[in-house]
From TrEMBL:
Family to which the UniProt record says this protein belongs: Belongs to the glycosyltransferase 87 family.
Keywords noted in UniProt: Cell membrane, Membrane, Transferase, Transmembrane, Transmembrane helix
Domain of life: Bacteria
GO cellular component, one term: plasma membrane
UniProt xrefs under Pfam families: GT87
Sequence segments annotated as region (Disordered): 412-441
Protein name: Glycosyltransferase family 87 protein
Organism whose genome encodes this protein: Corynebacterium pygosceleis
Compartment(s) of residence: Cell membrane
Entry's transmembrane regions: 38-57, 115-133, 163-183, 190-216, 281-298, 329-345, 352-369, 381-404
MF terms in GO: hexosyltransferase activity
Length: 441
């Protein structure tokens, strides 16, 4: 009996991976793992050294650190900090008073160059630590080849490179995200709430991730994640000079759609002068795609919480990058947890279309062409936008097809982890095959 046409047409997008029998874990120290460690550790270390000591020291025209550092210095000097001239294209200080208070220790370093290098090194270490947390979360030991392989891949990306070169805080935010997901998986509810609360305090784009504990009725995490930013801002308000300007001057600017260094759909529409109706059509279309994917993925929130949390969080974040007033390509680093799902038996990352999307939003390739000027410029500017749109579509279509296959009774994929490679400590087995605490099948 042939498969329904619906499944055949979506195979390219949604392949759940080979239906192989569950095998016993491979013994530690086999040839593949030894070779992987031998190859990836030296390559990773060389990339880290090059990104920090060469690219970051050289710097770039774009400098996110100076704006933050001098705003924090003004905070310590008692000078109003929200005094930006927003019609200039320079990076602006956009953090809330609460985030200013949390970041204020950085302003205690009086030497700018030393402060910048410490900040770069801290973010570089946070990225490596986040990848270590994700490696453990997916059931692999840090002594396996998975960890250095992930570090090598990450340090090749535009997201990591520009995070360090521009000297911004996204490496630390990636660590907060990885820790948040890890704590949710392991039922550490207060810790999860603190981590997501701090992330929201610095960048409100993390707020949609409160959806994960909300649908699990994990009220401690939800309330902590909401209360922490509110309390931090309340405490900081009388301490930050000119805090009221954040509401009257900075927040209106945050709602504006700028037409430079902005890869979101509204940003691209503004840059290219897209007709109003066409922009709204695509906005509503992709918002609906995200909503459908989020709803259908709920089916696996108890039976496969690791897959559900990492995939849903990536869908929500990619939707924010695509549809918000500002989306910058290096935000894509926050989608690293999704890439780790390729290690699972079922994953949207088993689709070649997903990896085309990954190339688009993580590759550092420059598409400017001397031969095809307009086409090359368009390809370069649209690359992250197309990547986020593709990954949103891939996740949602995959979720619908998985649901359709299970409804048809044809997708009895084993939910145990794949045949573990060397160093797999087996911690993921209960995560994949057993419902979360208090869950139900």
């Amino acid at each position: 009996m042939t498969e329904p046409a619906f499944s055949r047409l979506t195979t390219l997008w949604t392949s759940p991976g080979p239906r192989v029998p569950v095998t016993a874990p491979a013994p530690r120290g086999t040839g593949f793992d030894r070779v992987g460690r031998m190859v990836f550790w030296p390559l990773s270390l060389m990339l880290i050294v090059h990104r920090i000591l060469v690219l970051s020291v050289n710097g770039s025209v774009t400098d996110d650190f100076s704006t933050v550092y001098y705003a924090l210095r003004r905070f310590h000097d008692g000078v109003p900090i929200y005094n930006e001239v927003y019609h200039h294209v320079d990076p602006h200080y956009l953090y809330s008073p609460g985030a200013t208070l949390v970041l204020s220790p950085l302003g205690l370093l009086t030497d700018f160059d030393s402060a910048r290098m410490w900040f770069i090194c801290l973010n570089a270490a946070a990225i490596v630590a986040a990848l270590g947390v994700l490696t453990r979360m997916f059931g692999y030991a840090l002594s396996s080849a998975v960890f250095p392989g992930a570090v090598f891949f990450a340090y090749l990306t535009e997201a990591v490179r520009n995070t360090l070169v521009f000297s911004n805080i996204n490496g630390i935010l990636l660590l907060a995200l990885a820790g948040y997901l890890y704590c949710l998986i392991h039922e550490r509810r207060w810790a999860a709430g603190i981590l997501i609360g701090l992330a929201i305090l610095v960048k409100p784009i993390f707020a949609p991730l409160l959806f994960l504990p909300f649908v699990l009725a994990n009220w401690r995490t939800v309330l902590t994640g909401l209360a922490l930013p509110v309390i931090a801002n309340a405490v900081a308000w009388p301490l930050v000079p000119g805090a009221g300007d954040y509401v009257t001057r900075t927040m209106p600017y945050l709602r504006e759609v700028r037409d430079y260094a902005n890869s979101s759909l509204p940003g691209i529409a503004t840059y290219y002068g897209m007709p109003w109706w066409q922009e709204k059509f695509w906005f509503v279309f992709f918002a609906a795609v995200v909503a459908v994917g989020v709803i259908v993925l709920l089916r696996w929130r108890y039976t496969d919480p690791l897959l559900w949390m990492t995939t849903t969080s990536a869908l929500l974040l990619a939707g924010v990058f695509l549809l918000s007033s500002l989306g910058q390509m290096y935000y894509s680093m926050l989608l690293f947890p999704l890439l780790f799902t390729v290690l699972l038996r079922r994953s949207v990352m088993h689709s070649p279309v997903a990896w085309v999307a990954v190339y688009c939003f993580l590759s550092a390739d420059v598409w400017f062409s001397d031969e095809w000027l307009d086409l090359g410029r368009a390809a370069h500017y649209l690359k992250p936008t197309v990547g986020w749109a593709l990954i949103v579509l891939t996740i949602s279509v995959a979720a619908v097809v998985w649901w359709w296959q299970e409804r048809d009774g044809r997708a009895a994929l084993p939910t145990e982890p794949p045949g573990e490679g060397d160093g797999n400590v087996g911690t993921a087995s209960t995560t994949h095959s057993e419902p979360a605490n208090g869950g139900r099948p």
